[in-house]
Each structure stands twice: as C-alpha cells, then as structure tokens.
Write a structure and sequence with these properties.
Shape: globular
Order of helices and strands: HHEEHEEHEHHHEEHHHHHHEHEEEEHH
Number of strands: 12
CATH topology of the largest domain: Alkaline Phosphatase, subunit A
Number of domains: 2
Number of helices: 16
Distance between the termini: 30 Å
Structural class: alpha/beta
CATH architecture of the largest domain: 3-Layer(aba) Sandwich
Largest sheet: 9 strands, mixed
Radius of gyration: 24 Å
C-alpha cells in the first residue's frame, strides 16, 4: 500500500511524482490514461464521506449457468428440454421466479437448490445478467465467428486463460493488472485519505482481479481475520502472556523475547532488501491490529453474525461472513471505498454434474442469502454490490448418456448474478441466447457454446460506474470498452444498477 501523508499538498506532490514515474512502463493503457487516472484521483478528493463496497465472487471451474437460470416455459423451455437431455432439470423441481421484464409467454426459474437466491430475486435484491463472456471485439453470430474475421480472446475454452481474462477485462493483451486493481488505483487516493489498510482485501488468496500498480491486495483468513506472525499474533496466549496489564513487557523469557522482536522490527537497515523485508513485517503487524480492531468492532455492534450464517457454514459462507464483519468494522480500516474478493471452487463439472452442481448451488444460494441478510441488519445494504464472475458456462449438451456420471464441458458466454440494495432487481438483463445447438449463437460445432452477447467490459463497467468512475475515466479501467455498444444504451439492456 502506498505511503500516506496527512498534508494534502504533500499528498498531491506524491501522486504527481508517482504518476510521472510510471509513464515509462505503464504500457497497458498508456501515458494519457495514466495522467487521466492521476487527475481523476485528485478530483475525487472532494468526494469523501460516503461508503461503498464491491464484493466479487469468483466461481472457479466454470459454473453451469444453463442450470442456474432455467427457462420454465416458452420457446426457450422447448430448446432446453430438447438439447440438455439428461442434464435438464424437471419443471416440477425448479423454483419459479417472476422477472418484471420477461417477454410475454416466457417464464423463468432457478435451480431447485437456490431458494435463497429465488427469494432475493423476487424481493428485488438480485438480478441476472444473461450471456456475458470475454470478448476482444463484438461477434454478431456463428457465421462471423466461423469466418475468422473478428479477433478472439486467446484460448477461449481454457480455464487459466479465461479466469485471467475475466479478472483483467483486457483479453487481447498479456496480463498486467486486474480491473479491480485499476479501479482501486483510480479511486483510492480520493476516497481513502485516512486508510489504515489496503482497500483491496482478498478472502481466498492472491488473485488477478485485485492486481494494481499502487494499491496492493491484502489477504485475510476467512475464519480468523489477519494471519498472525507465528508466536507473536496479538490474539495468541503467548503474546498476551508477554505483557503486563499496563502494556509493558513482563520480565520473563516470553516478555523479553517479544520486546527484542519488536525492537528488531523497528530497526532501519541500510541494505534495501533488509529494509524492505522489515517494512513488510512491520506493515503485517500494523494490519493485523487494524483487522483485529475491525472484527472486534463488528462483533460488539449487536448483529449476530453466527446466527445469520447458521445455514451457510461453508467455505464461501465463511468468506462472506468475514467480509460482513470487515464492512461493519470499517471505521477501523478507515476506507470509504473497499473491494473484496471471495471465491469457490469445484465448478469444473465434467462428471457427475447433477449431484455436484446441486451441492455447489446450495452453498452459493445459502451464502448469498446469509450475506445479504447481514448487510440488511447492519444498515449498509444500499452501500454494497455483490457480483459474480466465472471462467465460462458449460456446454448446453451433456458429454454422456448416464445421468449419474455424465457432465458437461467448457462453454463460453454465461449468466451472472448481481446482488445488493443498489441493484435494479427482479429483472433479467442482457440477451438470452438462441440455445439451439449449431444455431446462430453457437460458437461452432453442436455442443452449445454460446457466443457472448455482453462483454465482460460492458458488464463490469456498470459496476465501476456505480462505484464512482465517471465516463471520462472509464477507459482507464476498461481500455477496450469503446469497441462495444454503450452499456448505458437501451439496446445493451444493462441498466441493472
């Protein structure tokens, strides 16, 4: 995390120097975009005081969104039953939803295990954005795709490539930064003047989404918060036993060990590598205290997190529970803008898809309901937007004939959910594909790999717009956005926030 200075003049000088220093190597968006980022950061100095948070949930492996958003009637249902075969979910089991913008004669439903999501959708707190995927340029249809006249993102059906491209939103260039990282670089200086910890916090390890130039991501443990240095964490008995009640060191081996450790930690070193290492340790200790303070604030605020998440005691549920606590304790972190990253794996359902995907949907739906319920209780529902990303959806057709053992393979465009108070919920956005295998929206073959009708750039830019990025700075975050229809136009149908 970059150095902070309480004096605005010094801060502006620091930013100016930092911006100029990057002109030589910031190749992704160029010098003009970097200066625009700098100017926008200074302009945002006047916009402090309000709070907003983004929560990205990445479903690693490729969520079969064909069985998340399920046609219940109409022509889409006919195509679904004809092509999905053994993977088709019976009408008697799915959960009907009531989109207020559904076409006449077309009804919709969600996976049978998504009762929480169905409740959120029907109450207006959740929306679905249809057929989103990585694109370098728009592709009109199957004919144009097969002609090879439009450049494609590299390795469209590859897990690692598509995960990186979703998180960078620049599929036609080598990875340099994530769009969450670039977004943080843009807004951090203006909104987080009193920050005590990075605005980019990950609950499940280092990710590409939060990689930036100035704001570094900080990883937090989903159960304990900050990961302590072994034996010296502020929450450990060993640490507490080293101190007297007044905070002085005890005259014991443990007390003196802690005293010497902290003295060494505060040494300055002439060797740059030694100083960098010591600074890292020092910051880790500082951040541990900040995160611990935020959790204590949250747990003393009157909201029963354990009860709210009683039906969501899973990896994803624990991540969202910790994010809720950090949001509740935001006065300790000092950030008016925060970006969180959570994730779940296991979505690469090549085999036994029906039972495994059912379990995944249970985890996802229960976690989302618990999280949104907690945000409501905290009074910050209108300040937080939660959104999904995933490698790709799965092929529409199954890869076998046995319902117990078969699954689906790597697809392309898929349906994403967006949740929160600011979301224009109870609606479907984007464009649902023609799900005829080999039809106009199938990317070659007859497996049902849908050519995305909405790019990641368009989808993500709407989220960034809500977060505080103006139209003049949007191409700093999404340099390819100008290749696609304006996401705010009626034809794009992306007014989900």
């Amino acid at each position: 995390m970059k150095t902070r200075d309480k004096d605005l003049k010094s801060r502006r000088e620091f930013l100016r120097q930092a911006a100029c220093a990057k002109l030589g190597y910031f190749g992704l968006v160029g010098a003009l975009s970097q200066m625009r980022l700098f100017n926008a950061s200074l302009a945002a100095q006047e916009n402090t005081g309000d709070y907003k948070a983004l929560v990205c949930i990445f479903l690693f492996g490729g969520n079969d969104s064909n069985n998340l958003l399920v046609p219940y009637s109409g022509q889409h249902r006919n195509r679904y039953e004809n092509a999905r075969g053994i993977l088709a979910l019976p009408k008697s089991e799915v959960l009907q939803i009531s989109p207020t913008n559904a076409a006449s004669g077309q009804e919709w439903s969600l996976h049978p295990n998504c009762s929480g999501m169905a409740s959120l959708f029907n109450s207006g707190k959740l929306a679905m954005v249809q057929n989103v995927g990585t694109l370098a340029y728009p592709i009109a249809d199957r004919t144009e795709y097969l002609s090879g006249s439009v450049p494609l993102p590299p390795q469209v059906f590859s897990h690692s490539d598509q995960q990186t491209q979703w998180q960078s939103s620049v599929p036609d260039k080598p990875f340099s930064s994530g769009w969450g990282g670039r977004l943080a670089d843009l807004v951090d200086a203006g909104y987080n003047e009193n920050s005590n910890v990075s605005m980019n916090i990950s609950l499940n390890g280092i990710n590409s989404f939060q990689v930036g130039q100035n704001v570094t991501q900080y990883v937090v443990n989903r159960n304990e918060g900050a990961t302590s240095l072994w034996g010296y964490g502020s929450s450990t008995d060993r640490y507490r036993d080293a101190l007297n009640e007044d905070g002085s060191y005890k005259n014991s081996i443990t007390g003196q060990r802690l005293r010497r450790f902290e003295e060494i930690m505060n040494f300055s070193h002439a060797n740059l590598q030694e100083e960098a290492y010591t600074s890292l340790v020092r910051r880790a200790r500082e951040f541990e205290g900040v995160i611990g303070g935020a959790i204590s604030e949250a747990e003393g605020g009157g909201v029963d997190f354990d009860t709210n998440f009683e039906q969501a005691q899973t990896s994803l549920g624990d991540q969202l529970k910790m994010i809720a606590k950090l949001i509740a304790g935001r006065s300790n972190t000092g950030n008016n803008r925060q970006i969180f990253f959570a994730s779940a794996g296991g979505y690469d359902t090549h085999a036994a898809q029906l039972p495994s995907h059912a379990n995944l949907m249970t985890e996802l739906s229960s976690s989302l309901l618990a999280f949104q319920t907690t945000l409501d209780a905290l009074g910050v529902a209108d300040n937080v937007v939660t959104f999904e990303s995933s490698d790709f959806t799965r092929t529409f057709t199954p890869n076998g004939s046995d319902a117990n053992s078969s699954g689906s393979d790597h697809g392309w465009g898929g349906h994403q959910f967006v949740m929160g108070g600011p979301v224009n919920g109870k609606k479907l956005y984007g464009k649902y594909p023609n799900t005829t295998p080999g039809g106009p929206d199938d990317a070659g073959g007859t497996r049902g790999r849908w050519i995305p009708s909405t790019s990641v750039d368009q989808y993500s830019s709407k989220i960034a717009e809500w977060f505080g990025v103006d139209s003049n700075s949007m191409d700093t975050i999404f340099p390819n956005l100008g290749r696609f229809n304006d996401p705010n136009s009626a034809s794009a149908n992306l007014d989900f926030i």
